[in-house]
Amino acid sequence: MNQTDRPIANSIVVLREEFDDWAVLFNSDTADAVGTNPVGVAVWKLMNGKRSIEDIVSQIRKSFGDVPEAVSKEICTFVNTLADNGFVGLALESK
Amino acid sequence: MPQKLKDKTGPAVSRVMRTPRSVTVEITARCNLRCRYCYFFNNPVVEYRDLPADEWLKFFDELGSLGVMEVILAGGEPFIREDLRLLIDGIVRNRMRFAFLSNGGLISDETATFLAGTGRCDYVQVSVDGSCAEVHDSCRGKGSFDAAIRGIRTLQRHGVGVAVRATIHRSNVHDLENIAHFLLDELGLPDFGTNAAGYMGSCRGNADDVLLNIVERKEAMATLLRLAAKYDGRISANAGPLADGRMWHRMEEARTQNAPAFNNGGHLTACGCTYSKIAVRADGVIIPCSMLAHLELGRINHDSLAEIWNNSPVLNQLRNRHTIPLSGFEFCAGCSYIPYCTGNCPGLAYALTGIVDHPSPDACLRRFLKEGGTIE
Prior knowledge:
Number of helices of chain A: 3
Number of helices of chain B: 13
Oligomer: heterodimer
Strand content of chain B: 5-15%
Number of strands of chain A: 5
CATH topology of chain A: Outer Surface Protein A, domain 3
Shape of chain A: globular
Helix content of chain B: 25-40%
Helix content of chain A: 25-40%
Shape of chain B: globular
Radius of gyration of chain A: 13 Å
Largest sheet of chain A: 3 strands, antiparallel
Strand order of the largest sheet of chain B: 8-7-6-5-4-3-2-9-10-11
Distance between the termini of chain A: 8 Å
């Protein structure tokens, strides 16, 4: 089965919305944690293996005001960082 | 957008998290030892009974739903529970990590294999109070030293993280150099922590035999400061002679230089645990901290932890201690250290004065100096 370009959140990772704008993604298997802002939280919640990065960027543009041009690149970097740390994988093609 | 956290257990915070990051669970009221200074036993407000596993498992489900990151299993002696694996399975299933506070004496190869196999055990903290059986066993009972060291070596053999805590008291204050050598050079631990026996629980009945007097406290501070320098960061302390020694040196230096107040000075700013942690007694009563076991906030599986965490008047009062100025206490009247003082542990303050919102007399630099102590 081939991988798609659709990121999917690792189900072992816990999203903790801690206070104000601050949230933490915590991988209980590795004890790694990544802090993030509300956009990162929204991106995290959209990574269900059914949306591509482009779909996610599009959704973020709809959900947040004054989204800068660079948001697409920033989201790619964010997802890649999460993938490098085992927080995110790529969904497999369904038959 | 993202920011990698420097500290996996979380930075110091000045605001309350939506849910606790860490929960200390006194998983049992039973223990194989009866240490003379134990803070847990002989507390008249505590009901010493164990809950069945299904109560804890239900509670762990609640912790998982709140995104709690770590459960600290304490007691009593947590390894005394026959159903411990079942309980740990419940923690793991709920995407949490765990750690233990233990005397080390009941850790078998099978237990260590199981802990290693979960991949979720942050550490097992084992108490070691002496470099040999004669010193260690003086407060903890015959055979406890050999059992603790056997437990540590078993954990090491299976690759489970070991943290050692040495509690300083009258019987080991002259053994500190040997303890450091034994733990760091012979056992090969990367580091160890220290604290001191406090006037709580069983210690109240043995205080004269256990608690350091001024001369011994001076000796402990000087020795630990020297050893901490010698071993370069491998000896730590959040309380006890080493922590006091470090803090009091800073306070004295600031006072003599007429330095501005410390950021956390002048008010009851200690401690910050209630911003990110909470605890549960063995009988299921939710409390702010094991040192404040009389402050009953609710009961697991009867009261919502999230509701308690966010709305408990008792918890919020503790969190607001930082607004109480030390200058308002008669105990602190005229003290030149006020701008640099935090009032220290509310649990010890309560144990010594009967008042939670009070500076801890045990951590008072002025009192220490007045009674003959020195800062060298």
